[in-house]
């Protein structure tokens, strides 16, 4: 595996990663955070997969059907040509809002000839910890665990089931299908039904893409990233995942391997802010409903992250039987970071609430719920802003007074004042404004380095950090402020390497970082453009786009030398930053708020 050359298909309940040559190497059912049924991504021997192996292949290529999340792998062989259209069904249904079962369908479309191939069907349920037994029945193929927690999987197909499971040669004189489901199907599955699901799913994604705001440039790239972010949203609750995978390493052979199949308040709120600007307003509403549902008590602490169904305890466990992506272990499920304190989440959350109040009408009951949330967050900020925390990058051992956390505490109070103004609730303004000013004065006094001529990573430190580039985006400083201009140049000078950005270069819990953090390179593009270095920003942005995979997808990290993608994939953070940079360069001086207003019109 020399790169993360995978496509993602999904239906807002779960998703799969399919390799460039058509192998399903990652799939968890029935939900994103369930145990894997195909996990070759994390162990190429034990993990399990479902591959298509043509007998006489000349070449293959992979692409998405335009403006959809339907992935097409085209096989051109000596004995014929065929395409496999992979998708997870999602479309409107009369009985329920959407039909989105825990199924993946592989529709084999005949193009020419009578191509021959084998299918390797090798499910390994429950993270491949125990043996999976597969038996061919009259109407379907059933796989189930023989030890440990019971789990099962069903396969329906128009191919000869015995030959398929045995890995014997199959032929394709006409269209065929394979359906893999977590559930036993109640209706007869055939090619006609599979085709109908394909067409309905295609219509759903085309309609969704049509609602996406269009810009002067980069519309294809923006739409692909938006479609990817949509796939990382969990329809049942409104949660937004940080990424689809677990334990893909930031650097091959290292142990910075984490489970990202959860909802980080910071990441999700940033995604929602961007998706609002793209015209997808229901996602914002759904996400805020999710947040409100998590806070039943007024004094309850907001965690930095939650399970996609609202779980508050995300205990971390190591799967010792899996060797990891290219031998990078440990493989982890769960994430102990849920216990951390990160004060930046307050500002990012209230910023989303402010956007909601400013741009959309809301019912009295809903407004009261959000206003209660805002007031509670300000109380939390007042209690915590002077305390150290773990910061945006989740330092596991050391707490510091991180500049970004302080800035976002300022944002929380600033947006709270603005929300109160919109709601004509002025009784707390004087107190809140004083708090806002105290936080601002503290940052300007303690986070600025005369030596570096830059805002630094934390109070009293000379280390620089890419996160301070967001000070302008959140309105703490103006792009024209000499301190911000100087900060941008200092951060670029110290953290850029081979055209890519470190998050920071100082040692953390695992030593010095070795890879580039993709989102930071996009943050630099944004900051350069806004401080007047427009041509340089455009050139860097176009170069960054070339570092995506063959389908325009980004992971969390990039290798400085080879530009190989690393880290969990596809990464919501990276795609939202790509969209924001594309909009900045495309729309020039327009603010995100102005773009959102235009999208609503």
TrEMBL record:
PANTHER family: GLUCAN 1,4-ALPHA-GLUCOSIDASE (PTHR31616:SF0), TREHALASE (PTHR31616). GO terms for biological process: carbohydrate metabolic process. It holds the Pfam family Glyco_hydro_15. InterPro entries: 6-hairpin_glycosidase_sf, 6hp_glycosidase-like_sf, GH15-like, Trehalase-like_N. It comes from the Bacteria. It comes from Prolixibacter bellariivorans. GO terms for molecular function: hydrolase activity, hydrolyzing O-glycosyl compounds. Residues 8-149 form the Trehalase-like N-terminal domain. Keywords: Hydrolase. SUPFAM superfamilies: Six-hairpin glycosidases. The keyword Iron-sulfur does not apply. The lineage of its organism: Bacteria, Pseudomonadati, Bacteroidota, Bacteroidia, Marinilabiliales. Residues 218-581 form the GH15-like domain. This is Glycosyl hydrolase.
């Amino acid at each position: 595996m020399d790169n993360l050359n995978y496509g993602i298909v999904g239906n807002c309940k779960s998703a799969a990663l399919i390799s460039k040559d058509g192998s399903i190497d990652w799939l968890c059912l029935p939900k994103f955070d369930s145990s894997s049924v195909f996990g070759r991504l994390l162990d190429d021997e034990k993990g399990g997969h479902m591959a298509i192996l043509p007998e006489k292949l000349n070449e293959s290529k992979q692409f998405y059907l335009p403006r959809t999340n339907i992935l097409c792998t085209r096989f051109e062989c000596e004995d014929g040509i065929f395409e496999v259209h992979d998708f997870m069904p999602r479309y409107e249904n009369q009985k329920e809002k959407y039909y989105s079962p825990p199924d993946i369908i592989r529709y084999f479309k005949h193009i020419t000839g009578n191509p021959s191939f084998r299918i390797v069907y090798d499910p390994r349920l429950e993270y491949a910890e125990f043996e999976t037994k597969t038996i061919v029945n009259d109407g379907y193929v059933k796989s189930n665990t023989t030890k440990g927690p019971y789990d099962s999987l069903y396969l329906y197909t128009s191919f000869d089931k015995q030959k398929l499971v045995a890995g014997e040669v199959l032929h394709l004189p006409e269209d065929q299908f394979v359906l893999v489901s977590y559930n036993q199907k109640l209706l007869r599955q055939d090619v006609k039904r599979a085709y109908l699901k394909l067409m309905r799913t295609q219509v759903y994604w085309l309609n969704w893409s049509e609602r996406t705001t269009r810009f002067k440039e980069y519309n294809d790239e923006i739409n692909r990233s938006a479609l990817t972010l949509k796939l990382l949203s969990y329809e049942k609750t409104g949660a937004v995942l940080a990424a689809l995978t677990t334990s893909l390493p930031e650097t091959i052979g290292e142990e910075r391997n984490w489970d990202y199949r959860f909802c980080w308040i910071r990441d999700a709120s940033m995604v929602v802010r961007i998706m609002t600007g793209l015209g997808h307003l229901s996602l914002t509403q759904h996400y805020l409903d999710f947040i409100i549902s998590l806070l039943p008590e007024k004094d309850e602490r907001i965690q930095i992250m939650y399970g996609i169904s609202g779980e508050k305890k995300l205990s971390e466990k190591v799967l010792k039987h899996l060797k990891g992506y290219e031998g990078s272990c440990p493989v982890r499920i769960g994430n102990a970071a849920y216990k951390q304190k990160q004060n930046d989440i307050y500002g990012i959350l209230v910023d989303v609430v402010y956007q909601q109040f400013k741009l959309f009408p809301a019912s009295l009951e809903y407004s009261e719920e959000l206003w209660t949330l805002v007031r509670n967050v300000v109380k939390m900020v007042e209690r915590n802003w002077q305390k150290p925390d773990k910061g945006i990058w989740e330092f596991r051992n050391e707490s510091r007074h991180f500049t970004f956390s302080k800035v976002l505490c300022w944002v929380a109070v600033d947006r709270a004042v603005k929300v109160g103004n919109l709601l004509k609730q002025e009784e707390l303004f004087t107190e809140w404004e004083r708090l806002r000013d105290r936080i601002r004065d503290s940052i300007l006094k303690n986070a600025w380095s005369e030596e570096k001529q830059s805002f630094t990573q934390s109070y009293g430190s000379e280390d620089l950090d890419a996160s301070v580039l967001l000070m302008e985006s959140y309105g703490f400083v103006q792009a024209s402020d000499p301190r911000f201009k100087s900060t941008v140049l200092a951060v670029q000078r110290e953290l850029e390497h081979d055209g890519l950005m470190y998050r920071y270069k100082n040692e953390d819990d695992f030593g010095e970082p070795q890879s580039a953090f993709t989102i930071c390179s996009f943050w630099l593009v944004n900051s350069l453009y806004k401080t007047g270095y427009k041509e340089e920003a455009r050139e860097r942005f176009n170069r960054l786009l070339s570092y995506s995979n063959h389908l325009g997808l980004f992971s969390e990290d990039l290798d400085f030398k080879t530009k190989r993608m690393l880290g969990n994939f596809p990464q919501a953070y990276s795609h939202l930053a790509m969209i924001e940079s594309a909009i900045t360069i495309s729309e020039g001086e327009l603010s995100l708020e102005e773009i959102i207003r235009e999208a609503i019109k």
